Amino acid sequence: MKATVYVTIKESVLDPQGNAVQGALHSMGFEEVGKVRIGKYMELELDTNDRAEAEERLRAMCEKLLANTVVEDFRFELV
Amino acid sequence: MHFGVLVFPGSNCDIDCYKAVGDTIDQTVEYVWHTETDLSRFDAILVPGGFSYGDYLRCGAIARFAPVMTALQAFAARGGYVLGICNGFQILTEAGLLPGALLRNQSLKFRCHSALLRVENAGTAFTGSYQEGQVIDIPIAHGEGNYYCDEETLAELTRENRIVFRYAGENPNGSLNDIAGIINKEGNVLGMMPHPERAVHVRLGSGDGAGMFESILNAWRETNGAAVNR
Fold first, then answer.
1. DSSP classification of residue B62
2. By C-alpha distance, which of B212, B191, B49, B27 is closest to B137?
3. What values do phi and psi take at B97, rounded to 5?
4. N- or C-end of chain A: fewer Cβ atoms within 10 A?
């Protein structure tokens, strides 16, 4: 089974990278761009066929290591 | 008094920390590899700066799960002094030994220069040699030193006088409330972005960091008998 994990900075936390990219896009003429948030995308191969177990263990991976829940949100998909 | 300096793959301020202990207070010190599981022989542990595990994923995120970190949790719980500097501070927040997190500098730049700090709390085991409100000159060198915590945590840190250092001049990273260093509730774990170990002699640009090592020794002597030297 393959999992994709998305980690993003919480809405309440300032994202300096996103702000810089927003500024760059504006200066390039892409005025329609509003807020930009930068995050991480991860692909994990899981050696299991049990979907429920995979979800449970992925949540633990995210909470323990893949995201810092003090400043980041996460979500994942199983394919 | 016996000091340990943790060494992770990618630590690069470990030698400075090691030498600072000898040069400022002439106490015994040894390196502690990240695989060690027992810290009971130490009185103080320095978690040095650098780029542990290449700063992969997040600064300190992987180091936080090294075997020595379980031992550090136990060491801190029994009241041992822990000083985390720069990447060491990041590791301590990731490990939950200190609240909050360190984000990318607001400028997105790696800032490496001397910085003025105000000692906001001179009553800790790490700052007793300074005067309250004293401004000291300690260098910084980081790209992710932008301290952040939620409002509730900030209120708690402020109320309990646990913001130990603030940037006295320009805030180099955009940290909340100009925070440069904080301490835990129990007063034995301090994390800071600036590098006191790089400021232990005027020939290095500043000798102001030596006071931190002197403070720790004094605090330790007060609880272990003034006559003890080592």
1. T
2. B212
3. -75, -20
4. C
Q: Check the CA dihedral B167-B168-B174-B175 and report its sign.
A: positive
Q: For residue B99, what are its two tokens?
A: 């609240």
Q: Distance between CA atoms of B127 and B215, rounded to whole angstroms?
A: 6
Instruction: State both tokens at B199.
Output: 């400021």
Q: How far is B101 from chain A (nearest CA, A)?
A: 7
Q: Do B61 and A16 touch (CB under 8 A)?
A: no
Catalytic position from the list B59, B86, B120, B149: B86
Question: CA-CA-CA-CA torsion for B203, B207, B212, B217, nearest 10 degrees?
Answer: 70
Cβ(B199)–Cβ(B207) below 8 Å: yes
* Tens-digit pLDDT profile for residues B135-193: 999 999 999 999 999 999 999 999 999 999 999 999 999 999 999 999 999 999 999 99
3-state SS, residue A24: helix
Residues 143-162 of B with CB under 8 A from A: 146, 148-150
Q: How many residues does chain A have?
A: 79
N residues, chain B? 230
Cβ contacts (< 8 Å) between A74 and chain B: which residues? none
B229 Cβ neighbours under 8 A, 6+ residues apart: none
ipTM of the modeled complex = 0.86
Q: What is the pTM of this model?
A: 0.94
Q: Does the annotation mark B144 as catalytic?
A: no
Query: Is the CB of A68 less than 8 angstroms away from the CB of B146?
Result: no
- Amino acid (1-letter code) at residue A79: V
Which domains does chain B carry?
A: 2-224 (3.40.50.880)
Helix (H, G, I), strand (E, B) or coil at B187: coil
